[in-house]
Amino acid sequence: MDRFPKGTDVDFHSPLDLSKAAAAVLDEEGRVRGWGASAQRLLGHSPEDVLGQPAARLLAAYPEQRLSGLCKAHKPRSAVLDLCRRDGRTVRAAVALSPLTHDGVAATVVVAADLEAQRAWEAQLAMLQGLATESPVGLTMFGTDLRVIWGNVSTDLELAGVAHYVGRPAADLFPEGEFVSRHHPPDEEQVMEHVLSTGEPILGLHYRGRAPVDPVREHVWSCSYHRLLDARGDPLGLFEESLDITERYRAQERLSLLVRAGKRIGASLDVRRTAAELADVAVPQLADEVLVDLPPAVIEGRQPLTGSAPGHSLLRLHGRTPEEFGTTPISYPPSSPQATSLSTSRPVVDASPPESPVEAGTGGWHSCLFVPLLTRDAVLGLATFRRSSNPDPFGAEEQTLAVELAERAAVGIDNARRYTSQHEAALVLQRSLLPQRLPELSGVDVAYRYLPADSRVGVGGDWFDVIPLSGARVGLTVGDVVGHGVHAAATMGRLRATVRTLALLDLDPAELLTRLDDLVAQDSESSGDDGLSDEGLGVTCLYAIYDPVGGRCVWASAGHPPPIVADASGSVAWSALPPGPPLGLSGLPYENVELNLSSGSVAAFFTDGLVEDRRTDIDSGIDRLAQVLTWQRSPVEELCDRALSTLTPGPQADDATLLLVRTRRLDADHVADLELPPDPAMVAEARAHTERQLADWDLSELSFTAALVVSELVTNGLRYATGPVMLRLIRDRCLLCEVSDRAHTAPHLRRARRDDEGGRGLFLVAQVSQRWGTRYTASGKTIWAELAVS
User: Fold this and answer.
1) Alpha carbon distance 165, 157 (integer Å)
2) Nearest to 383 by CA among 341, 419, 417
3) Strands 725-731 and 780-788
4) Helices and strands: H and E segment counts in the chain
5) Is residue 77 a contact partner of residue 70, using CB atoms and an 8 Å limit?
6) In this predicted model, what pLDDT tens digit does every residue of 421-438 receive, in sequence order?
7) Which of 84, 176, 413, 746 has its Cα between 20 and 30 A from that of 390?
8) What confidence tens digit (pLDDT) does each residue in 56-98 have?
C-alpha cells in the first residue's frame, strides 16, 4: 500500500502548459482561426460555434479594443480576462498571448486557464522557491550513484558552499558523523541504498556530527530520505531533508538525564555509591568526568558543621565498586573558584582551569563547573564537572541541570549519612545488648554464631543468651523481633533483659513465656500509635532449662522453631510438638517439652534467618542444619562454621543466629543427696553428713561455713514444712547446698531485733554465701546457696 495514496494527484505542471491549457489561434483581425479541444472543455463552445467569429464575442467585461491591443503586441503578453461560457456563466481566466508571423501572415496563439488553478500553481512554485532559498530544512539531492547533485540554500550554508561537494559521495559531507538513532544501519550509505532500492522512505533519523561551517561544535539533525522518480517511474536518485534539532535534542537528553538521575542517584544509601551514581549519570552526556569532594565527617556518617563551608580537609571519592572505593585528601585555596563556590553556595564556571597540585598531570580540561552539595542549609561538599572532548563551555541550561543533579546527589548523600549514623548506632546498641562473652559452665559446652543481615536491610532483632541458674542448671534462650533498625534492636535488648530477669526467678519455661507474653502485650497496648507497637507483635522466643545432674532438658516455644537435637550416637531428632503463639497475642497457653539428653548430645537453637530466605524454604534449611549435626562429635565451634557454610551465597535478608550446646552430665560422685525425716534432731545429722562429704571432696576448709548454711536451711525446712526434707550437695565450680521441702511458703530475709530469739538464719546464709535464692517445683520449693571454692 502506498504511504501517500493521493500522491499521484499532485501535479506541478503549469495550468498554462499547452498540454493542459485551453488553446486558440487568432488572425491579425482578431478572428478565431483555431480552436482546440481543451478550449471547448473550458468554455463549452464547439469549433463550429467560434471559428471565423471575432474573439471579442468571448469576452465578458472588456471592450474589443482591449483584445485588439493584446493581439497586436509584438511580444508575449499576459492578462486576466473574464470569458463567457456557452451556458452563460463567466470564467475568470489567466490568458497568455504570443504573436506568430509565418510567410507574412500574422497570427496570435492564445492560451487560457482557470485563474484559481493558475494562482494555486504559482503558490506551489513559491513554496518550492522558499524550500530552496529560505527554508531552515536542508534539502540535498543525490543521483543513483549516491553522489551529490544539488543542495538548497540551507545545505549550502551548512556545508560552507555546496558546490564543493557536487559529485562527491555523502560520506564526504560529515566525515566524522554518525547516526544516534537505534534500529537502523549506522552507515548513511546503507540507509540511502535501502531507500533507493526499495522506495521505502526512512524518516526522522537522528544524525550527530560537526558541520563544515561550524567544525568545533557538535550538532544533531533529524534526517529523512525519499526516492525520486521520473515521469516513467524510473529512479532518478533520492533526496535528503535535514533539520538542525540540536537544542531540542539536548533538551530531551537533559530531561532523560533527570529521569535517570531520579531512579539511580541516592538509591544505595551509601555515601560512596551515591557519589559514583552521580558520576555514572552525568558522564558523558553532561561532562567527561565528575569529581565529588566531601568532608570526612559526612563520609563517616556524622553531622557536618552548620553554617560553614568546608574549604579544606576534604576527601575526594573515587571508585565504582566497594572494592575500588578510595579517598584522596584535597584542599582549596581561599581564592580558588572551588572555595568561591563553597563559600557562596553557588555554581562557578571556570573556562580555563589551572591544574591544582593534586590534579597535576591530568591535563586537557578546558572547562570546569563547580557546584556545591547543599541540603538543609548545610554544605556537604563539592561536585566538579569537567570537560575535555566537548569543546563547549557549560551554558546556563547545563549549569541549571548540574545544580539539579547536585541537589539530588546531596539529598542522597545526606540520607546515606543519616542512615550510616543510625545504622552504626543500631549496631553499637545491638552488640552492647548481646552477650559479650558466654559463661564457662560445667554442664554445657557452648558456641554461637551471629550473622547480621545485609547492611542495606538494617540491624535486626535476633538475640540469644546463656544464663547460669541454681543447682548447676543452665537457661538457654533464643529469640527474634520482626523488623530492622534501632526499634528492633531496642526491643530485642529489652526482651533479653526481661528473659534473664525472669530466668533468675527460677521459673519453668512455660511459666516464663506466659509472664513474658503478658509484658509484651502490655507494652503493645501502651505504645499506642507511636510506631513501636509493631515490633512487639512479631516477637518469637524459645526458652530451655538444662539440668546436668539428671540430663533433663525442659523447653517451651512462643512461635519459635524448636531446637534440633543430635544424641551421642549422631541420630538427629526435633520435636513434633508445634510451638505456641508468638509473644503479645495472649490467650493461648504455652506447654513444656521434656527431653532426657545423654552426655555428649548437641542441641541447636536458631532463628529462622539461618534456615530460611527468599530462595530457600524453611524445611530445606532445617534439613541442611540437621545434616551438619550428624557430625556431632566435632567441636561445637567447627559445627558452627559448617552450619554457616551451608547458607546460600549472597546478601542476607534477615539476621541469622545459631547457638550450639553440647551437654554434659555431672559425675555421680559430685552429687550427694540425703533425705531427712521431719525431726528437729536431724539438723545435727545434716551437719555431720555435710562435713563428711566435704572431707571426701577435699573441701574441708569449707566445712564450718557449709555446715552453718546447711544447718540454717534444714532448720528452716523442718520448722515450716510437712514431710521429709531433702538435702543435696553439688560440687561444681562452686559448692551448691540445696534443701527441698513440700511447703510453698516463700522465705524472707529480715532484720532481727536485739531481743528476738530467731530470724537471723537467712541473714547469716546471705552473708557467708556468694548467692542464694528459692525456686519452686511442682511438689514444693528448694532453697539454695552457693559457696565459693578457692
Assistant:
1) 12
2) 341
3) unpaired
4) 19, 32
5) yes
6) 877 777 777 677 777 788
7) 413
8) 888 886 655 566 666 666 678 888 888 899 888 998 989 888 8
